[in-house]
Write a structure and sequence with these properties.
The chain has 872 residues and is an alpha/beta fold. The protein contains 39 helices and 16 strands. The strands form four sheets. The protein has a six-stranded mixed β-sheet with strand order 7-6-8-12-15-16, with helices on both faces. Strands 3-2-1-4-5 form a five-stranded mixed β-sheet. Pfam families: CHAT. Residues 623-870 form the CHAT domain. InterPro entries: CHAT_dom, TPR-like_helical_dom_sf, TPR_rpt.
């Protein structure tokens, strides 16, 4: 082999070190009238580039020419190498039979080292096809030869592939060992694309071991590496979708999969990747509650997999198809048989999805009252409860709970649900971001519902309360984990504020802002990504429920003369649990859906009443309040007693203005996301020093007129206004304050609740900013619109400003769940602070403040819009 030959052959490893440069140099070789051997190498390089990142039709053209030129050069080793590359391309193009034939020819033509490389490529293609055992056999033959030849690059590739196959079979420990060995080899090379792929694979391994934050961090790192190389990332997109779904972010996974499919179609890319992306989209749509889209995507994926002779993948697509059909309300003997048959095939494949299929078969059989079949299938599914990743174990416990219910064992149901929810709790402790913790709870919704139903049917009100608390507001039980001085996050937050402020100024001046909005969205994605990477820590020695099991007796003791109403929802109906006087009583409420509709009517009415001249709407709003009381409290409304009341509503009723309900208008009422949360707030001690902080943001119609007058009630408070009301200074003063009052425009972001904000002089103060506080103010009063609006996510969780404050040390909040009239807010706030400065709790001071307002529609609506949260 001549020096010139060596130079041309160097282009092959260069494809995965510097893809763009390799493509340019290969095209340059073809412009120089090369020998058949050199031309073969150049066409192979171009074919690899097009195969992995471009047009599959062009890839096949170049690789066939490379094969023909190698034959003309009479180099069997060159021809074998090209046949290995061509085989991969044919498989990715969906021409499985032709691809496997190319591999057979390549293995025949090659010897030694070259044959080992062909076998590696065939192993890769067998993995793509879902033939995992056959892939491992080829790798068994390949790796020793590559090691003996001291071929670092191809040995590292083979180890990475073997690790990936092990993951597909659920052998996480074996995969980790191979990934570690491969990474050591990659560190000695300049193969930048291969290195990016190794990082991506480590992300997949982290996910399979249950570490979602690490998986997201590694996948984002891999994406950054690919971006520097300018190569598309379709396999990465598929893996990210899988992680996003496990994190409870199914709508985002669906959007990402659909976007990747559009890009892939635009370049004429790999048919195999398109089928896998369609499967990811189908799974995401099903989890997002869109079975119609799931059926459409899964059906196309199934057809593609069948045409590509990818039985393993076809079976997985079929599973999603049946799950989606069941979600539309279909149940039949045919679906039971189909699901059971799929479970058998998945078990034969050693696929981790087998328990999911057994559970599906058992669930359908139960619905049809086929008890014998249901027992058989659910027992198979329940085998996964003892080992494996968290979601697989929860599948097993769900199967165990369903079977216990079918056999009438209430105790068995509760034990299975307890064990399954313990698994979820352990999983959530790995999640540092409050958003991930909240969304992850959706994975335990069925277990919680089964336990609550069993408690309702035979356990009594107190047991139902315990199980409602076992499930409610779990994400708020501990504060989010703060990254230790993450400079990238701080930089991103600062840049976001600057861009958001510029965009807002441009809108007010009537100037177009598409460029600024694009940059703002980019920064939001970057900030959110950094927070999702944060790994959780387990406080209080790892105990659940915020360190202590919920104690109903302790709650009843601490309530004293007060009463607590916890609203549980079972089968769509509200169950009212009235706690106080040493006992827990249950009352029947109305349908949750009807209560939600009435709450929306009330919100619409309050929006109208925030403007002068809408007094005619007042009777309509009051009547809606009466209907809400009937639906939410039922007969319990007459049993509340005279003392203070704590309301613990489900997440979907967080916007109810409780002071509007007739029985509650003249009462001291506070709201808490859980009874456990109320107990924690009650036990929270105010910080020493008693610092009071008053903040006045820009742009209020009232100019925050209450702030100067309120300042006189607190001696020498810290007053931040004009240029002093900038986010860094505001956060500095809020940290550990005894009382904070913030008069600033509030914006609720339904599309991204963690970016809900208060407008400061230098831009928005967002929820992510508050989560950086070591301790948020003991009491905080937010006097502007929509500051109490929250997004209902997960099973029964909340995201938004108030939800962020409560786990951070805030014991009491006053905020508004509706738009309010800025000027009408001023007298309410002055009256509120009169009570607070006299030593009253927030809820009592708010009750008295409402009574002190003028008795007109505008001021009454303003008073109803504000709610006291917590216990301070």
């Amino acid at each position: 082999m001549t020096a010139g030959n060596d130079s041309v052959l160097e282009l092959l490893p260069m494809v995965f070190a510097a893809p763009g440069d390799a493509l340019s140099r290969a095209e340059g070789v073809l412009d120089t009238d090369p020998t058949p051997l050199h031309a073969s190498v150049a066409h192979q390089v171009i074919g690899i580039w097009q195969r992995d990142w471009g047009d599959m039709r062009l890839a096949l053209d170049h690789l066939r020419r490379a094969r023909d030129l190698a034959a003309r050069a009479e180099s069997a080793e060159r021809e074998a190498d090209v046949l290995g590359t061509l085989g991969v391309a044919l498989v990715h193009a969906g021409r499985t039979r032709q691809g496997l034939a190319a591999f057979e020819r390549g293995v025949e033509r090659g010897t030694g080292h070259t044959r080992a490389r062909v076998l590696y490529r065939r192993a890769y293609s067998l993995w793509v096809l879902g033939h995992h055992r056959e892939a491992l056999e080829d790798l068994r033959r390949t790796i020793p030869v590559l090691r003996q030849a001291d071929d670092v690059i191809w040995t590292a590739r083979a180890l990475t592939l073997r690790a990936t196959v092990h993951l597909a079979l659920g052998a996480v420990d074996r995969a980790e060992a191979d990934f570690t060995a491969a990474e050591t080899l990659w560190d000695t090379t300049g193969q930048e694309h291969d290195k990016a792929d190794a990082v991506e694979s480590r992300g997949l391994a982290a996910f399979r071991s249950g570490d979602v934050p690490a998986a997201l961090r590694l996948l984002d790192e891999a994406e950054e590496r690919y971006a520097k190389l300018g190569t598309p990332t379709f396999m990465l997109d598929i893996r990210r979708c899988e992680v996003l779904m496990a994190a409870g972010l199914a709508p985002e996974a669906l959007a990402e999969a659909d976007a990747a499919i559009a890009v892939l179609d635009g370049i004429g890319g790999q048919s195999t990747r398109k089928a896998e992306l369609l499967l990811a989209a189908a799974r995401a749509a099903r989890l997002a509650g869109d079975p119609g889209t799931a059926i459409a995507r899964a059906a196309v994926a199934e057809r593609l997999f069948a045409g590509q002779r990818r039985t393993w993948w076809e079976t997985h697509a079929r599973l999603v198809l049946i799950e989606a059909r069941v979600a539309t309300g279909r149940a039949s003997g045919r679906l039971v048989a189909d699901a059971a048959g799929l479970a058998e095939r998945l078990a034969a494949f050693q696929a981790p999805a087998a328990p999911e299929a057994w559970l599906l078969a058992g669930r359908i059989a139960l619905e049809l009252d086929w008890s014998t079949d249901a027992e058989r299938y659910l027992r198979r599914a329940a085998h996964s409860r003892r080992s494996g990743p968290p979601l697989a174990r929860m599948t097993g416990w769900a199967a165990q709970a369903l079977w216990a219910r079918a056999t009438g064992s209430r105790r068995g149901v509760l034990e299975a649900c307890r064990r399954g929810l313990d698994v979820l709790d352990d999983h959530r402790t790995t999640l540092g971001a409050s958003e991930l913790r909240a969304r992850a709870t959706a994975q335990g919704a069925e277990l919680a519902a089964l336990a609550q139903q069993a408690s309702l049917e035979g356990g009594g009100p107190r047991q139902l309360l315990v199980w409602s608390e076992r499930w409610r507001a779990t994400a708020l039980s501990t504060p989010p984990t703060r990254p230790p001085a993450d400079p990238a996050l701080l930089s991103g937050l600062t840049a976001f504020r600057v861009i958001a402020a510029r965009a807002e100024a441009a809108r007010m001046e009537g100037r177009p802002v598409p460029t600024l909005e694009r940059e703002q969205r980019r920064l939001e994605r970057e900030i959110r990504s950094r927070t999702l990477h944060i790994r959780g820590v387990t406080p209080w020695g790892g105990d659940r429920f915020g360190g202590d099991r919920f104690d109903a007796a302790l709650l009843l003791e601490r309530l004293g003369d007060a009463r607590l109403v916890e609203l549980a929802v079972l089968d769509g109906r509200v169950q009212v649990l009235l706690c106080g006087g040493g006992r827990v009583r249950r009352f029947a409420g109305g349908l949750l859906a009807e209560a939600e509709r009435e709450a929306e009517h009330v919100q619409a009415g309050l929006r109208r009443l925030a403007h002068p001249g809408a007094a005619g709407r007042l009777p309509v709003v009051e009547e809606a309040g009466r209907r809400l009381e009937e639906l939410l409290l039922g007969d319990a409304a007459g049993q509340l007693g005279p003392g203070p009341l704590v309301v613990v509503p489900p997440a979907r009723l967080h916007r109810v203005p409780w002071a509007l309900l007739p029985s509650l208008r003249d009462r001291v009422v506070s709201v808490s996301p859980s009874a456990s949360g109320w107990l924690r707030a009650r036990q929270t001690e105010p910080p020493p020093g008693g610092r009071h902080v008053l903040v006045r943001g820009p742009g209020l119609a009232s100019c925050g007129a209450e702030v100067p007058e309120v300042a006189g009630r607190y001696g020498r408070p810290v007053v931040l206004e004009a240029d002093d009301a900038r986010v860094p200074r505001v956060l500095q003063e809020l940290d550990g304050a005894a009382l904070a009052h913030i008069a600033a425009h509030g914006t609720f972001r339904a599309d991204s609740p963690m970016f809900s904000s208060l407008r400061m002089a230098d831009g928005p103060l967002i929820v992510h900013d508050f989560e950086r506080l070591a301790r948020s103010p003991y009491r905080i009063i937010l006097s502007s619109c929509d500051t109490a609006r929250l997004a209902s996510v997960g099973a029964d969780e909340l995201l938004g400003l108030v939800a962020a404050l409560l786990p951070l040390g805030t014991a009491g909040v006053v905020a508004s769940s509706a738009p309010v009239n800025d000027e009408a807010v001023v007298p309410l706030m002055l009256a509120l602070h009169k009570g607070v400065s006299a030593g009253l709790p927030l809820a009592e001071a708010l009750r008295d403040a409402r009574a002190a307002l003028p008795d007109d529609a505008l001021h009454r609506a303003t008073g109803w819009a504000f709610t006291a949260f917590g216990a301070a």
